[in-house]
Specification:
There is one protein chain. The chain is mainly α. It has one domain. The protein has 4 helices and no strands. The mean pLDDT is 86.
């Protein structure tokens, strides 16, 4: 089972992952974009998971918890 992170720990891990994959400049640029633009999570979720059946979603979620 995955550990529950505090908001601070989650923020630190998230920024570290961004910096590792994008580099510090692009990571900050990405974060700035998020803070400027409105984001509709429900619309994103509907688009991202469109066509994904529940069994597949559970399998994907299960594989993440076993890492």
């Amino acid at each position: 089972m995955t550990e529950t992170l505090t908001d601070e720990a989650l923020t630190q891990k998230g920024v570290a992952a961004l910096e590792e994959n994008l580099g510090p400049v692009q990571a900050l640029r990405f974060l700035a974009l998020l803070s400027r633009e409105s984001f509709d999570y429900q619309a994103w979720r509907d688009q991202y998971f469109a066509g994904t059946d529940l069994d597949t979603l559970f399998q994907q979620a299960g594989s993440l918890t076993r890492r």
